[in-house]
Amino acid sequence: MALSQSAAISTTSATEAPSVQTDLIAALYGLHFKVKPLILNTAMQSSSTPKQLIWVEQSQKMTVDGFDTALNKIIQYFEIEPFCTIRIDNGQAEVCINHQQQQSHYDISTDQIEQYLQEKFYSLCIPPAGQAYHVEIDARYISALEPQTNLGKMARDLRIKNILEKMK
Questions:
Q1: What is residue 13's three-state secondary structure?
Q2: Rounded CA separation 38/168 (Å)
Q3: Which of 65, 67, 87, 102 could potentially form a cystine with 58 if both were Cys, beta carbons 3.0 to 4.6 Å apart?
C-alpha cells in the first residue's frame, strides 16, 4: 500500500450475503474508491467461513470531503459499521477502531501505524497467539470488477449504475 497525503482508508467486516457484498464493492468501485476485498483465513477455520474485510482508499481524484460524503452514503445505504479508519495527512495519522460498540481513537505519527495496528487492530481480527493466519485478496470480487470482455464490462457498468441510482 502506498500512503500519500490526505489518504483515508477504511475496512469493514463483511458478513452480508455474497450478492450484498458484491453490490457494496460495485458501489465503492462506481464512486471511484480504490477497493481491495480481503479474506482472513486461519488454521483453525476448517469448518467456519473465513473473515472478509474490504480495504477502501481515497482516490487521488477525490477531495477529503467528497470521500467522506460518498463513504457515509455507502455506509448508510448498506447499513454497515466501519471497523477501522485511518486518515493520513502531513505525516500524522488519525486511527479509529470500532469493536463491539467501543471506539478507540488515536492520533499518531505515520511511522507508528504498523506497531499500533499490530497491538490494537490485528488482535481483534487475528486469532490468539500460536494460530496461523493468512490474508489474501479475494479474487472473486476483483474479477467481477475487472471483466475481460466488452459484454462483461457493460454488465458491470449497468450493475454499478443501478446500485448508485438506488442509493440516491
A1: strand
A2: 27
A3: 67
Reported as a single tens digit per residue, the pLDDT across 129-158 is 556 666 677 777 666 667 778 888 888 888
Helix (H) or strand (E) holding 152: helix 150-167
Number of helices followed by number of strands (H, E) in the chain:
6, 7
Give the integer Cα–Cα distance in Å for 130 and 103.
27
DSSP 8-state code for residue 12: E
Provide DSSP, 75-127: HHHHT--EEEEEEEETTEEEEEEEETTEEEEEEEEGGGHHHHIIIIIHHHHSP
pLDDT in tens, 95-107: 888 877 778 888 9
Q: What is the pLDDT of residues 36-91, one digit of tens each?
A: 887 777 665 554 556 677 888 888 888 888 888 888 888 889 888 777 888 888 88
Q: Is CATH 3.30.70 the right assignment for the domain spanning 7-87+132-167?
A: yes
